[in-house]
Amino acid sequence: MANHKTELELTWIGKENQPRLEPRILIEDPAKSNHAAFRVGDKETDPVIGRRILLMMALGLLAPLLAAQAQQPGKVHRVGVLGGVLGSITSSSSAPRMEVFRAGLRELGYVEGQNLVIEEISSEGQSGRPAALAAELVHRKVEVILTTGTSPTQAARNATSTIPIVMTFVSDPVGFGFIASLARPGGNITGLTNYAPELGGKWLELLKEASPKTSQVAVLLDPATPVHAVLFREMQVPATALGIKLVRLEVRDPNALEGTFATLKKGRPALVVLPPPSPSLRRQRILELAAKNRLPAMYHWREYVDAGGLAFYGASRTDMYRRAAIFVDKILKGAKPSDLPVEQPTKFELIINLKTAKALGLEIPQSLLLRADQVIR
């Protein structure tokens, strides 16, 4: 009696003769055990060809299953964002920065709601709250924290020594003890600083171009911030070349700003405002006093210009947040913060507030306006 076994039959169905695999019973003649019949529809075909057809069909059926498995979501990464908001005056002005950061992560393969969750919290309008908000991000078990500015970075550092921190817009990360050095950060903090040695000379050059009669520039700085002394020192050579006398204007007590500005009434110099440890520290009062004393001023934070200051020249925030996304990606893929050198800015932007210039009676040269990345009219 002949043996029988269950196999798959390849048949063509429908008007378009579409292939379909169906189970059937094959009757195998013992005398032809090495050459069992294989049917394609109602036709018998060579068994070798039949096996090949079956293999191709099996692979065709498996391919969608394998593709579906490959597309199944894997680990969902949680990234915390701590800012104030991101060093801005209003939450609306932080939106472009966050969009650049999100776009950078999307380009690297992260999609919010699929393999990424961004926990964004801010201390704006909540004095003394950065520490509590940093602790909240730690409680939410984020894998990495993005910070902007010195105060949020300090809060994150105090909240955790294990969760990686990617800082941005910190002028003096070494002086504040966040890292050991730019090349070898050590610890759990890395990222980007907005300090560059050539900034001081560029500020003086731009002030001189905006106000050619400028012969004296006061530098508003915090003596407790080490990088301020470095910047002031680095401004000496370009100041001499431009025929400018530098005046060191120290602010030890934010409440004494009025008295500090009172010393500038003689000579009415131009002004360079270096970044305080907290970018919102008496910011509005500094702007008011600069306007009251009719001082052309260059600021180290562009938010000052958004709020009425004359000019900003410094690190491109678009470039910095795009690069911050790259840092976050490397860390999520296993890199250690201590092994990622802190980067200095490579792209800069110039913002000029033309309304403020007119209020000060300044005629900004067209050549300077054409070089500006943004002119506020």
Characterise this structure.
This protein is an alpha/beta fold. Helices cover 37% and strands 23% of the residues. The chain has helices at residues 47-71, 91-107, 130-139, 150-159, 199-210, 226-234, 236-242, 257-262, 283-292, 302-306, 317-332, 354-359, 366-371, and strands at 3-13, 18-28, 38-40, 43-45, 77-83, 116-122, 144-148, 165-168, 189-191, 216-221, 245-250, 270-273, 297-299, 311-315, 348-353, 374-376. Helix 2 (91-107) packs across helix 11, helix 3 packs across helix 4 (150-159) and helix 5 runs parallel beside helix 7. The protein starts with a strand and ends with a strand.
Please outline what is shown here.
With 377 residues, the chain is an alpha/beta fold. It has 13 helices and 16 strands.
Task: Give the amount of beta strand, in percent.
Answer: 15-25%
Which structural category do the helix and sheet elements fall into?
alpha/beta
Broad shape: elongated
Mean pLDDT value? 82
Number of DSSP strand runs = 16
Question: Largest beta sheet: what is the strand line-up?
Answer: 11-10-12-13-14-15-16
Approximate helicity band: 25-40%
Helix/strand order: EEEEHEHEHEHEEHEHHEHEHEHEHEHHE
| Radius of gyration from the alpha-carbon trace, in angstroms | 33 Å
* Number of continuous helical runs: 13
The major sheet is characterized as: 7 strands, mixed
Poorly predicted sequence stretches spanning 5 or more consecutive residues? 4-38, 62-72, 85-92
How far do the termini sit from each other?
99 Å
